[in-house]
Amino acid sequence: MLTVDGLSAAYGRVTALREVSLAVRPGEIVAMLGANGAGKTTLLNAISGVLPLSGGSVTFDGRRINGLKPWQTARLGLAHVPEGREIFPGMTVEANLRVVDVNGGGPEFGVDRVLDLFPRLKERFDQLAGGLSGGEQQMLAIGRGLMARPRLLLFDEPSMGLSPLLARTVLGAIAELRQSGIASLLVEQNMRAALKVADRAYVLRVGRVTREGSAAALRDADDIKQAYLGL
Ligand SMILES: Nc1ncnc2c1ncn2[C@@H]1O[C@H](COP(=O)(O)OP(=O)(O)OP(=O)(O)O)[C@@H](O)[C@H]1O
């Protein structure tokens, strides 16, 4: 459903991504793994239209989407849950969810379903989003993404800054979404956690894809274990 082909992106004269290619098939969770500064955020921004490409193409359901703006890709069913979470701190949890007025054509995701997925948000429903803990804000950001009825979700480091328990809750919720037929591209520094929920994964190193395979194969690969999993 998503095909990225030879994508390059730059900040001025500094190239951040070099000819990155990847695919996400319907209903799949694909992880893009890489250290700090590898280019993961840049990749998601280039796919969702936040950042222009300097080369290559992005195709979503057979349609070329590079050059479209983020609000246009959202309408096509591509929701981006950014690293900074970008919730509205001065609005309640409820208002943050209800303000979303996009239909990406994916499964219907009303407020009730978001609260079923993240019961913690039910307890905070009338509170200002700015007062939520980091984990709760992450849940809210994901909930907002879901309200746009996406068919593909782009997650930027959803486990970042969370306790191991909350990180498991959030990644577990992402795994649950697969059952609704929603595909995910999951950018993570936390390889161990990401490889538990992903079907397939790629490794990004200094702007290039250096490895790809099934999550199970990457988990068992000696080079990955040594370089990234600390085994
Ligand atoms: N606005 C910017 N201007 C210039 N260079 C940038 C900018 N944003 C990112 N970069 C550079 O592009 C490269 C990729 O950054 P990016 O944020 O995509 O990496 P990342 O893998 O998401 O890392 P992190 O985990 O720290 O978010 C880095 O070398 C970074 O310094």
From TrEMBL:
<keyword id="KW-0067">ATP-binding</keyword>
<dbReference type="InterPro" id="IPR017871">
    <property type="entry name" value="ABC_transporter-like_CS"/>
</dbReference>
<dbReference type="InterPro" id="IPR003593">
    <property type="entry name" value="AAA+_ATPase"/>
</dbReference>
<dbReference type="Pfam" id="PF00005">
    <property type="entry name" value="ABC_tran"/>
</dbReference>
<dbReference type="InterPro" id="IPR003439">
    <property type="entry name" value="ABC_transporter-like_ATP-bd"/>
</dbReference>
<dbReference type="InterPro" id="IPR052156">
    <property type="entry name" value="BCAA_Transport_ATP-bd_LivF"/>
</dbReference>
<protein>
    <submittedName>
        <fullName>High-affinity branched-chain amino acid transport ATP-binding protein braG</fullName>
    </submittedName>
</protein>
<keyword id="KW-0547">Nucleotide-binding</keyword>
<keyword id="KW-0813">Transport</keyword>
<keyword id="KW-0029">Amino-acid transport</keyword>
<dbReference type="GO" id="GO:0015658">
    <property type="term" value="F:branched-chain amino acid transmembrane transporter activity"/>
</dbReference>
<keyword id="KW-0614">Plasmid</keyword>
<comment type="similarity">
    <text>Belongs to the ABC transporter superfamily.</text>
</comment>
<dbReference type="GO" id="GO:0005524">
    <property type="term" value="F:ATP binding"/>
</dbReference>
<feature type="domain" description="ABC transporter">
    <location>
        <begin position="2"/>
        <end position="231"/>
    </location>
</feature>
<dbReference type="GO" id="GO:0015807">
    <property type="term" value="P:L-amino acid transport"/>
</dbReference>
<dbReference type="InterPro" id="IPR027417">
    <property type="entry name" value="P-loop_NTPase"/>
</dbReference>
<dbReference type="GO" id="GO:0016887">
    <property type="term" value="F:ATP hydrolysis activity"/>
</dbReference>
